[in-house]
Amino acid sequence: MNHEEEELQVITKVEKQKQGRHRYNIYLNEEYAFSVHEDILIKHRLNKGESLYQQAIEAIILDEERNMAYVKALHMVGRRPHSLSEVKRKLKEKGFEAPIIDWASDKLIENKYVNDEEFAKMWTDNRVISQRKGRNLIRQELQQKGIHQDVVKSTMELINPEDEYVGALKIARTKWKQTSGKLMDRKRKTAAFLMRRGYTGAIVTKVLGLISNESDEEEMEFMEDGFEDN
C-alpha cells in the first residue's frame, strides 16, 4: 500500500504524563494512540497538528520499544556489572522480543557498557581475592552467567596461582581450627571444604601439607612446654 492509499492520522494532543518522568501520551484523531519517551518525541518531531502515515507510526513504536529496552538495560548495568547473557535473559523476562533485545544489546556493546572479557576478569578477581574461591567454582559461575568458553578459558589463565594459594591457606587454617578429631579426619574434612570452594587438587594438597606441619609443630611445642613445667 502506498502513501496515497493510506489514511493520514493527525496528532491532536501531546500530553505529558503525571507519573512517568520524561514520558508523553500521543493522541491521534482525538484518541489515545501510544506513549513515548521524551527522546523519541523529539527525534520524530511529534508535535500537535503533525500528520502521520501508518508506516511512520510503526517506526515510532519500534524506536520506543528499542529505547525502553535500552534504558532498562542501562539501569541493570548501572546497579552492578552484568554479562551480556544476563542482560538478554532479564530483558526477555521483562517481555521484550528477540529483535528488540538484540538491538539493545548491540548498543550496550557499542557504547562499552557491557564487555564479557572485562566482566569475567572483574568477577574472577573478586572471587579469588575477596571471597576466597578457587578456579573450579569460578569457572562454573562464569559458565552459568553465559560467558563464552573461550573467554572463560583465557580468564582462568590470568588467575595468579599465588593469590589463589594464599586465599585457600587462610580459609583452610580457620577450618582446621574449627575441626576436631584425629589428624586424618581433620585433613579429610578440611580438604573436602576446600574442594567445595573450588580449589584444585594441587592447591588442596599443598595447603594441607603446610597446615599439617604447622599442627605437628604446635603439638611438639605444647609437649615440650609440658615437660618443662614438670
Summarize the structure.
With 230 residues, this protein is of the alpha+beta class. It is 65% helix and 10% strand.
Q: Mind explaining what this structure looks like?
A:
The protein has helices at residues 38-43, 54-79, 84-93, 98-110, 116-130, 135-144, 149-157, 161-178, 183-196, 201-229; strands at residues 9-16, 23-28, 31-37, 51-52. The protein is α+β, with helices and mostly antiparallel strands and 230 residues long. A hairpin with a 6-residue loop joins strand 1 and strand 2 (23-28). 22% of the residues are buried. Mean pLDDT is 90; it is low at 220-227.
Shape: rod-shaped
What is the number of E strands? Answer: 4
- What is the quaternary state of this protein? single chain
Radius of gyration: 30 Å
In whole angstroms, the N-to-C terminal distance is 107 Å
Give, in order, the helices and strands.
Answer: EEEHEHHHHHHHHH
Structural class: alpha+beta
Main sheet: which strands, in order across?
3-2-1-4
Largest sheet: 4 strands, antiparallel
Total number of helices? 10
Helix fraction, binned, reads 55-70%
Q: Mean of the pLDDT scores?
A: 90
Low-confidence stretches: 220-227
